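Per your request, structure below.
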């Protein structure tokens, strides 16, 4: 897939970059991160202009984010239920739901940076569960800017090592995602244990202090 897209860059350039990024924000499996990084490499070779790559990638991300958010706002919980019919997609949605439920706007920002594989899913979840549009946008836009800048700059600075860098990024993203899920699950269990201890303490209070 990425080889096909790279072959089209000389013909469609920035239009291809922006389009692929926007569509990938709808959870369509396109290698947008690798394409933006490769476009940064093209900029280093003089075939593209770096600031234009960053701007177009950022614009595509914001547009895709907003479309996903408003689709889910219109579809609501029933849309998420239909999207969970596939097990792999259901797992990603459940992780996104857990992050948004616990961290709100911070989860939206994190899903565009340190846990970017969850980016499209947090957009859908945010719209479906009623996270405010302004709250979502104020977190999503800076996250999109960081994402576009980081990947384009990586390609620009390490143009000769993009293939190796891509492997490291994919492996690192998987590790970060797993760590985030583990931390979130641990926090949830800790809160549940605290609630249980408090309830038990309250229930036993009359026995210790009879009136």
């Amino acid at each position: 897939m990425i080889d096909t897209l790279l072959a089209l860059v000389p013909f469609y350039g920035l239009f291809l970059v922006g389009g692929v990024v926007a569509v990938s924000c709808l959870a369509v499996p396109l290698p947008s991160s690798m394409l933006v990084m490769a476009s940064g490499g093209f900029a280093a070779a003089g075939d593209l202009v770096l600031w234009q790559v960053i701007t177009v990638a950022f614009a595509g991300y914001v547009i895709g984010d907003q479309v996903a958010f408003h689709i889910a706002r219109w579809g609501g919980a029933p849309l998420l239920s239909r999207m969970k019919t596939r097990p792999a997609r259901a797992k990603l949605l459940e992780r996104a739901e857990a992050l948004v439920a616990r961290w709100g706007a911070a989860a939206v920002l994190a899903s565009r940076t340190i846990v970017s594989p969850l980016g499209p899913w947090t957009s859908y979840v945010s719209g479906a569960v009623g996270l405010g549009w302004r709250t979502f946008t104020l977190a999503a836009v800076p996250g999109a800017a960081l994402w576009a800048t980081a990947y384009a700059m990586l390609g620009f600075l390490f143009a000769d090592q993009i293939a190796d860098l891509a492997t490291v990024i994919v492996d690192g993203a998987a590790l970060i995602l797993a760590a985030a899920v583990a931390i979130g699950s641990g926090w949830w269990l800790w809160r549940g244990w605290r609630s249980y201890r408090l309830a038990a303490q309250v229930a036993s209070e009359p026995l210790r202090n009879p009136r």
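Confidence is low (pLDDT under 50) at residues 168-190, 207-211.

Regards,
D.
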